[in-house]
Amino acid sequence: MSRNTIKDKELSEEVQEQMNDSVEEKVEETRDFIRSLVSTKKLSSYLVARNLPFAAFIAFLGLLYISNRHLAERTVRTIDRLGRDVKELSWDYKSLSAELMKMTTQTEIAKRADTLGLKERKEPPIKIEVVKKK
Q: How far apart are CA 29 and CA 31, in angstroms?
């Protein structure tokens, strides 16, 4: 197994200074990076220009989502309206069918025939036979 030998040994002043300098450089780089992100000049120009295609894509997806939602709601409204129309037409069909069945009963036909001056026969029809001579 390897052990951490740096802890066991004392560091020379040069090594300590080099480590401190490298840590300070990294701290400065981090501060500069954070300042560059927060600064308005670079933020407004660089980041916006860099992320403009992504923002346009997100805006396009938003518009697509909104239009899809409107289309779905319009379709649902159309389906509801057509369902109500079908029910209304079904009721009309049933009422007209019942009225037609009532009008074609024998008593209703007899009543309408009386207004025309026609009378219903009381005796059954007579069969007339024609005899052909050879």
A: 5
